[in-house]
Amino acid sequence: MLAEAITASNALHGWLESQWTGLFVDRNPLLVLTLLSFAVHEVVYFGRHLPFAIADHIPALKKYKLQEDKELTSAEWWKALRGVLFAHYLVELPLMLLFHPTATMFGMRLDAPLPSFGRMAAETVLFMVIEDAFHYWAHRALHYGQLYKIVHKQHHEYAAPIGLCAEYAHPLEVIILSMGTLLGPLFYTIATGDFHVFSMIVWSVIRTMQAVEAHSGYDFPWSLNKFIPFWSGADHHDFHHQNFIGNYSTAFRWWDHWMGTEGSYRVSRARTALAKAEREVAAAKGKVKSE
After folding, report:
1. DSSP state of 116
2. pTM of the entire predicted model
């Protein structure tokens, strides 16, 4: 079984490598990288939101919605979509265009061989830790004074967000928080002299999926925070949107724990759990009496 898995993994890696190499034959690498990065981002961003959009129309899943009584109006949904497309095409696309020549200048590789799956996974975990630290402090700073009023307030127009709202933000906020995603790979490239742009695309896919999930408004029994205690997830970030303070982390909860900025979240969730338990006990007693 293990040998078969390794063989399949090697075959997949070889196929990806040949496809990757073929993309650049007789083509401008800057143009290919920019368009590929942007296309992947759009597919992942809207594709990751799709299951949550479908869940909105399945009554049996409503119990997993964090703010059951809150629904976006049609006008709010279209406003979010317009804002997201503005950010994607007029802010993020130019950033992608600028990032790749800068990274290549510092030594990022384009050619074969691709890094192993294990190495890409390890790099992604490292970048998640770096991005999470950057995001915590940058996000917390955006909640102060004029930075909140001028920049971050736009993102908080949605107190009960959906996945589509993940990148609904002021252009300056998009640029500032994008730095957390970009700086890790840049520093890694400078430090090691051996980083592949394919790994950058993998990392951006994971980061985009995580951001959309955090804004989804759903906390399922199979959500990642049920298996990784220090994972933030939608439950953690939805509380931030609902209360406009605390829970500044993006992926992991440890910065909020260390800095004491999730105390109200823990108290609120403890009260919710207690109330739920009391309702279940009362329902069980009522059932026994009726029998």
Report:
1. P
2. 0.91
